[in-house]
Amino acid sequence: MPLRHRLLAALVAALWGVNFLAIHASLEQFPPFLLVAMRWTLIAIPTLLLVPRPEVPLRYLLGYGLGFGVLQFTFLYWAMDSGMPTGLASLVLQSSASFTVLLGVLVTREKLTGARAFGVAVAVVGLAIVGSQRAGGATWWPFVLTLLGGLGWALGNIASRQAKPPKPLHLTLWMSVIPPIPMLALSLAVEGPDRIVDAFATSGDAWGAWVGLAYTVVLGTVVGSGIWTWLMARHPASTVAPFSMLVPVVGISAAWLALGERPNAVELAGSVVVVAGVLLTSGTRRRISGGRRRGRGRAGSAATPPPRQPASAGHPAVRPS
């Protein structure tokens, strides 16, 4: 994976880390299922009018929309609305990396090297360390919901990887067409019309909720997910997915500064272990082997050319091609 692609993956992690603050601000005003529907509807309408449908099989478009758009955010928003701390949610959701690697091996038969498997295992240990501090008692249900959100993200990763879209941004935008109808139906059935109407009726002064929604739509979805899909189309899922484990480093730090969610020493140690796992997983084997090949090429080019044969009578000397 080239350095510039790793930097793009890190940028997505930063955008998604801050995105949890934006979600928190929006959930202060809107119920979770309605908020998921609003998020995707704001993208789906201009997409249907302006963006050509991606040239991918319909099953992968549906799989990406249902996994990434519906399952991930339904469970994540539900968890955060049920009391999952913002910073911790950004961490637990990164269980998607482990789910993605596992599904990549089982579904798409991707090869998993020993070094990469070890890196993923280290990152999972880091997630377990942090989760152990909050997963007991009354917080177990939001914790499980967030894990289910990570599984939905992983299913979306595999679908987008299999789609291999020629224009990844088109796939990202058209994925937004899938969630609005099922999410609106779920909101009406669970949250009810009265709660929906009340949320809009009192949203005039809730500028923070609207700013958070705008950030989620533009930076968190169009920019972040667009780059992510572009990377997933060019590299194995097991290479790209572990970079998502950098999201909680940003998410926990942002929640600490903005919301006062101060992690304890064990949680900070677990975050360090997560970062170490990401670094081990990305590896440098390809770069080293490439350098060796270039080295051999230079050695070959420096070899002494064969001596030029003298011209014989009636036959001009042959020039080497």
UniProtKB/TrEMBL annotation:
InterPro entries hit by this protein: AA-Vitamin_Transporters (IPR050638), EamA_dom (IPR000620), EmrE-like (IPR037185)
Location of region: Disordered: 287-321
GO CC terms: membrane
Main localization of the protein described in the UniProt heading: membrane
Pfam families xref list: EamA
Keyword Acetylation in annotation: no
Composition skew (Basic residues), residue ranges: 287-297
Keywords of this entry: Membrane, Transmembrane, Transmembrane helix
Gene3D superfamilies assigned: 1.10.3730.20
Location(s) in or outside the cell: Membrane
Membrane topology designation: Multi-pass membrane protein
Transmembrane parts of this sequence: 32-51, 58-80, 86-107, 114-132, 138-159, 171-190, 210-233, 240-259, 265-284
Domain EamA: 7-130, 143-282
PANTHER family: AMINO-ACID METABOLITE EFFLUX PUMP-RELATED, INNER MEMBRANE TRANSPORTER
Record-stated family: Belongs to the EamA transporter family.
Name of the protein in its database record: O-acetylserine/cysteine efflux transporter
